[in-house]
Amino acid sequence: MCSVSKGFSASLFLLVRTAPQSRVHASSFAHRCALRQAKRIVVKLGSAVVTRGDECGLALGRLASIVEQVAMLQNHGREMMIVTSGAVAFGKQRLRHEILLSQSVRQALQSGHNQPKDMSVPALEARACAAAGQSGLMALYEAMFSQYSTCTAQVLVTNLDFHDDEKRQNLHSTLQELLRMNIVPIINTNDAVVPPPEHNSDLHGVNVISIKDNDSLAARLAVEMKADLLIALSDVEGLYNNPPGTDDAKLIDIFYPGDQHSITFGTKSRVGLGGMEAKVKAALWALQGGTSVVIANGTNPKVTGHVITDIVEGKKLGTFFSETKPAGPSVEEQTEMARSSGRILASLQAEKRSEIICRLADLLTEKTEEILAANKLDLEVASSSGRLPSAMLKRLSLSVAKINSLSIGLRQIATSAQNSAGRVLRRTRVAHNLELEQITVPIGVVLVIFEARPDCLPQVSALAIASGNALLLKGGKEAANTNHVLLQLTQEALSMHGLREAVQMVSTREEVEGLCRLDKMIDLIIPRGSFQLVQDIKRAAKGIPVLGHSEGVCHVYVDADASADKVIGIVRDSKCEYPAACNAMETLLIHRDILRTPLFDQIIDMLRTERVRIHAGPRFASYLTFSPSEAKSLRTEYNDLECCVEVVDSMQEAVEHIHKYGSSHTDVIITENAKTAEQFLQQLDSACVFWNASSRFADGYRFGLGAEVGISTARIHARGPVGIEGLLTTKWVLRGDGHTVADFSEQGTQTYLHESLPLEQKEILLEGY
């Protein structure tokens, strides 16, 4: 087996590890995620993909990348076919070279002429170019595929091969046998003999299709061979509602039969016979025949190296053709609705936003039984599946006490909403009658992705409402029933001011990675969940800021001057009160002088009583004859009744240890020495640093923020528990009276004053924001 180039992602190995089973070919796939099941795949390479920009040769690097992807899929059980252009371009390159060489030789043989000869190349006939280029093109494919121990076969076809029953059956039999022998058929129209396409030749139905370009050839071939998927690669990102490059052009994610009326087609590509209109007609014909279709860009250097494998993996690339329209709006439509309502929400008076949040708090207590009933269903499903770890089950579980706590927190947020969006931060008199203000405004559309934590939904909804932001929610399927009830209550509260659509739950089969690509629609992503979730979101986000913490590797350092009573209480609370929380203690650092003292024995006895499993750090293990299991890593977030215990020589060494192994989340010192404590608080670079207090206080509700959208360990915008302030940005408002910059030049009549003015707060309605 050949090795895979470094450009291939780990996701490819997950994709091709096992070959999909052949499926009964009845209809096309309804959703992108189902494309992973595709067994037989046709890849159509358009002329613009295969040829160079000068149209006189092949784009070898691009072609090699495509061959690598096709070979990898073929070698792992898929049945791959290629419909390729390029013979004309390859032949044109060869013929130009031969003509120029011939002219040069003739000129050299002629004598007595001092005038230079015209070395221009005459126009070349396309069929001649195709004849000259077919063998070379196939030889190139063979050489490239041989690098992956993959065999290829050339098949040249014309219209007659499909319209004559006997020839069509022969073609089908040949291709079927090649696929059975694990050979990749490389198919092209026989351009050396094919007649020019007729003007009225078009796609006329399931049983009649004219092969006038490689788009129609690929569609006809895919249906004939009962292919599961046709990937048509071109030089545009996919299908747009208007010609690409125009101001109103938007990429269409999913195209449904009957949507042609909403499309304005542009001109065809720089090379080839077909344009986008031809591609759409061919795609719809294939779709009607039971083959799924994706049209995508095969020339973009950022994605060419993985475009085919990404499509087969179900990622949101290009335009996916589907016969199944979703019952509700698409995620793009949901985002637009949320943004529109969010702008109205931002323009509401603060008192009205507070009313919405208070109403939501009331609904939580009024509908407690309904919420708990839905939550019970989720817990039963999660428990029976056995796939959720205990830490996630605890997060999934709601109780009367939790709901009451949520309601109290929401009322705190309602109070904070009185002084959030529209607050004046700075006022400056720039010059006479020219005043500048900096005011707080919402960020825009915020996407919050959360795992099995339904209490997150009303919390972040209230914070978004208070700050005037539109909100998109993507919850884990583990909490589907609970989330559904909580969303209904949230939208019911918003309805009191006609803003039900300001908070939306993405409930389609939308992959998280697809959401992260909507950089023109979403302004901020906040992941709430495991370290792996946060990292996956950060990798997937394309041009959208991500606000989240890396890990919750929180430390508690017990100093030599610590109070025994405080140590036992703080360590127990930090580790045992809720071990699944991101602010729970994961590493206990103990000053060396405390070893072999009664306090040390009390700490160990308490942890054992609470059934905390201890993992010894290297230095701690060296002090013990029989030590607990040694920690595999000093940078572990256990999220359970486990922790690492390590020994340090001083407060300074504790700080260095935390900087090396911590995650800049929350870290604690326990000491009675005020000087040592202040040094720890100042030197440690974490989002939250505490003295003689449990790490569990790192929470928006406990900080008086009402709730939090998450805890950020980033170093810009917001850090620590993120409440309303973290969902606001600013804009500058300048009010003048016909002022121009020229007025302040050397010859002007105005001078800058730059006087600070008092912050006289006033109600600012952010209309149209």
What does this structure look like?
Residues 39-297 form the Aspartate/glutamate/uridylate kinase domain. It is found in: Mitochondrion matrix. This is Delta-1-pyrroline-5-carboxylate synthase. Residues 330-597 form the Aldehyde dehydrogenase domain. Its EC number is 2.7.2.11, 1.2.1.41. The model is unreliable at 1-18, 197-211 and 269-274 (pLDDT under 50). The protein is built from 24 helices and 26 strands. The relative contact order is 0.09. The chain has 769 residues and is of the alpha/beta class. It is 38% helix and 17% strand. The longest helix has 23 residues, at 87-109. An 8-stranded mixed beta sheet has the order 3-4-2-1-7-9-10-8, sandwiched between helices. Strands 19-20-18-17-21-22 form a 6-stranded parallel beta sheet, sandwiched between helices. The protein has a 4-stranded antiparallel beta sheet with strand order 25-12-11-26, with no helix packed on it. It is globular, with a radius of gyration of 33 Å.
Strand content: 15-25%
Proportion of helical residues: 25-40%
Strands of the widest sheet, in order across it, are 3-4-2-1-7-9-10-8
* Shape designation: globular
Q: Termini separation (Å)?
A: 57 Å
Number of strands: 26
Overall pLDDT, averaged? 85
What gyration radius follows from the Cα positions, in whole Å?
Answer: 33 Å
Secondary-structure-derived class: alpha/beta
Ranges where pLDDT stays below 50 over 5 or more residues in a row are 1-18, 197-211, 269-274
Catalytic activity: L-glutamate + ATP = L-glutamyl 5-phosphate + ADP; L-glutamate 5-semialdehyde + phosphate + NADP(+) = L-glutamyl 5-phosphate + NADPH + H(+)
Function: Bifunctional enzyme that converts glutamate to glutamate 5-semialdehyde, an intermediate in the biosynthesis of proline, ornithine and arginine.
Pathway: Amino-acid biosynthesis; L-proline biosynthesis; L-glutamate 5-semialdehyde from L-glutamate: step 2/2; Amino-acid biosynthesis; L-proline biosynthesis; L-glutamate 5-semialdehyde from L-glutamate: step 1/2
Subunit structure: Can form homodimers/multimers.
